[in-house]
Structure formats: C-alpha cells, structure tokens
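Encode chain A's predicted structure.
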Amino acid sequence: MAPCAPTGSGRLSRGLLLLWALLGRGLCHTAGKAEGFGQEARTSPPMAKYNSTEEVYGTVAERCWEFFVHLMRNVTAPQLCDWKVISRPYSWLQECLEGSAEHLNYSYPNALAERFIFQSHHRYFHNCSVGDQVFDPPEDVLLAMVFAPICLIPFLVTVVIWRSKDGKAQP
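Encoded structure for chain A:
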C-alpha cells in the first residue's frame, strides 16, 4: 500500500493516514500467518497498548515527520527557499499533523505539532527570510499614515452635513 495514495479530492484519507502511521511503526501486526479458520486465526494478535490519545498522536506525528524528511531529501539547497518547490512537502506535513489530530479528536494546534513545524523551519528554512525581510516604516511616516485619516474624518463629516442642509431635493 502506498503511503500517499490520493483520494478523489487529492487529500489523504484520514483513516488511511492513521493506518499507514500505525503500520509503519509496527503497531498493527500483519506478519502473522492464518492458515485456516481454526482457533489461531480467530484470536486477535497482541496490539500495542496506549495510555492516552497523546501517545497515539505522538506516534502518528513522528511518521508524518519521517515522511516529510523523506520528501525534503529531493529538494536541493538552492530550492529550499522556493515556495513552489517546498509548498507540497510543507503543506503535506501540516495537513498530516492537523488531519491526524482531527481524526483522533486531539486538539490542533498543539505543542507537538508546533514542535515539528518549528523543527522544519530550523532544519530547512532558517536562511530563507534573509533577502526578503520586510521592515516597519520609520515612526514619523507611520504617525502621518495613522493621523491623516483621523484628521480628515471630521472635515468630511462637516462637508456631508453642510451639503445635506441645502434644502434642494437631490435627483
């Protein structure tokens, strides 16, 4: 089974995503042989026990991260800051973390998802904003941009009231 088999909408099925994550961790035992319909085939194999949804989500989030790292291996260093190249793996990571949390009825955003997002920025994208930094305007320009409309409003209100008292019917 391919881990990223698209559904009709182009998004991964959340159930398929969870199953893929659990199979990848070896939590669903699929290696057992069932020869027939005897007692051995009817007993369920031992499953890993989790104490909380957080542990399950942690396992699934790790799988999301591992697949993101796998996708990012195909991206060269000069392409790391090109959104057209990295948008698909980055969006996949975000969608995987969010979809898994939703499927497990776990809150999103959460600390674990944020950790993986921050880790992706620290590992891959830490040099991307150096050339395209946006700075705030100087304070005097900012004050002029704020106060000009504020001062203009009373003048415009006065003009509107003055014109409406004309008494002539407007067509």
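The helical segments are 14-25, 39-42, 53-72, 83-103, 111-124, 139-164.
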